[in-house]
Amino acid sequence: MRRSREEAARTRQEIVKAASTLLRERGLHGVRVANLMSEIGLTHGGFYTHFKSKEALMSEAMEAAFGETMDAWHKVLASTKKRTGFINLVDLYLGEKHLKDPATGCAVPALGSEIARASTVVQDSVAKGINEMIEVLSKQIDDVSPERTKERAIATVACLVGAIVMARCVNDEQTAQSYLEATRNQLLENQAATASKPRRKAKRS
């Protein structure tokens, strides 16, 4: 019985992993349950042994996609000093590998406006993932107040996502790279300018 539960858990994980890759590669509407199950050597009917619906799978697959992104971010941060953490995250996100390999990258630019038309449960998973991105970036930004720091983290995520979307939309490598480079330069300039500002002293009560 224990072995059966372990096998079921491994199968479920395999389905989620495959769906996570395919949804970033083909979009939410490009993932069909029958094709997904066939690609990993399982039957269509077996899908409902593990998931109540396709939406339930897409929600978990979205969380898995963000999990991969966050694992990559934390790996970069673990191998660098805090003062260069922001730069390294920006370089990772705007890098050539991320640009050319949507299937293993961030889910937001890979799916674009599809997310806005997705079910509530899928949108909730995306919101959770975006909030985690913002939280991680906030720790790499040192602004005059927590509120301002969060605002800059939100703006940074928006710039990163938008730059990748724009770069993937053009069929010209030079133009694509110019979008990424311009975004990188602006973000790093903002970071450097903030770092040079004198910190506001806390008021004494």
Question: How would you describe this structure to a colleague?
Answer:
The structure is a single chain. The chain is mostly helical. It has helices spanning 2-26, 33-39, 47-50, 54-78, 82-93, 96-100, 107-111, 120-138, 146-169, 173-195. The protein starts with a helix and ends in a 10-residue tail after the last helix.
Question: Major sheet, described briefly?
Answer: none
Mean pLDDT: 90
Please identify the oligomeric state: single chain
* Dominant shape: elongated
Number of helices: 10
Report low-confidence residues grouped into runs of 5 or more: 201-205
Distance between the termini: 64 Å
From N to C, what is the helix and strand string? HHHHHHHHHH
Kindly provide the radius of gyration, computed on alpha-carbon positions and rounded to a whole number of angstroms: 20 Å
* Derived structural class: mainly alpha
- Which band does the percent of strand residues land in? under 5%
Helix share of residues? over 70%
Tell me the number of strands.
0
Strand and helix layout:
Elements: H1 2-26, H2 33-39, H3 47-50, H4 54-78, H5 82-93, H6 96-100, H7 107-111, H8 120-138, H9 146-169, H10 173-195
Concise structural overview:
The protein has 205 residues and is an all-alpha fold.
Which descriptors apply to this entry?
10 helices, 205 residues, 0% strand, mainly alpha
